[in-house]
């Protein structure tokens, strides 16, 4: 997940990046999976994804810009159903969070300890901390997903 610090992040992009984490190393992607799978998931399940991730994001200091849509956002159930129906509603919401080094480290420290440990071990000798190395994060998480997808693919072949 790479968002230039100078570019605002919209809610659709954030939800897509979160959903993409599950498919980053999947061996089936590009072979048997729909290449639009992630955006299709986000479009079809935006309300559910917001219901799951927005409270967690709030705990991490992430906020959704309410400037143009206070009345809609204040009635969250309606807003969630609106998001479910309209991708543009996701693209119109700006996600606000500290994308500087301190913010990235804070988010890194909220990861599960096992993943933090893997990333810290893999970052040794790379010259930068793991929260400053998006390629390391993607490759480490991709390896985890790849292993799981290989196991699932093997099970599918054998059953």
Strand order of the largest sheet: 1-3-2
Query: Overall pLDDT, averaged?
Result: 77
Query: How many strands, what sense, and barrel or not for the largest sheet?
Result: 3 strands, antiparallel
In DSSP terms, counting alpha (H) and pi (I) runs of 4 or more, how many helices? 9
Q: What percent of residues are in strands?
A: under 5%
Shape: globular
H/E series, N to C?
Answer: EHHHEHHHEHHH
Q: Structural class of the secondary elements?
A: mainly alpha
In whole angstroms, how far apart are the ends?
A: 35 Å
What's the count of strands? 3
Instruction: List low-confidence stretches.
Output: 67-73
Overview of the molecule:
By secondary structure, the protein is mainly α. 61% of the residues lie in helices and 4% in strands. It has nine helices and three strands. It has helices spanning 11-20, 37-44, 46-59, 70-74, 76-85, 87-91, 101-109, 113-123, 134-158; strands spanning 9-10, 63-64, 94-96. The chain has a three-stranded antiparallel beta sheet with strand order 1-3-2. Helix 1 (11-20) crosses helix 2 and helix 8 (113-123) crosses helix 9 (134-158). The termini are far apart. Mean pLDDT is 77; it is low at 67-73.
């Amino acid at each position: 997940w790479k968002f230039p610090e100078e570019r605002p992040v919209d809610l659709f992009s954030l939800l897509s990046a979160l959903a993409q984490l599950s498919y980053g190393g999947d061996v089936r992607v590009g072979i048997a999976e729909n290449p639009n799978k992630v955006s299709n998931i986000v479009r079809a399940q935006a309300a559910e994804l917001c219901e799951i991730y927005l409270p967690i994001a709030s705990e991490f200091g992430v906020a959704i810009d309410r400037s143009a849509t206070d009345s809609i956002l204040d009635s969250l159930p309606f807003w969630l159903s609106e998001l479910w129906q309209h991708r543009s509603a996701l693209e119109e919401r700006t996600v606000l969070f500290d994308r500087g080094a301190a913010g990235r480290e804070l988010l890194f420290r909220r990861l599960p300890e096992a993943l933090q440990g893997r990333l810290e071990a893999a970052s040794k000798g790379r010259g930068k901390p793991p929260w400053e190395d998006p390629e390391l994060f993607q490759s480490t998480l991709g390896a985890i997903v790849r292993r799981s997808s290989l196991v699932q693919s093997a099970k599918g072949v054998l059953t």
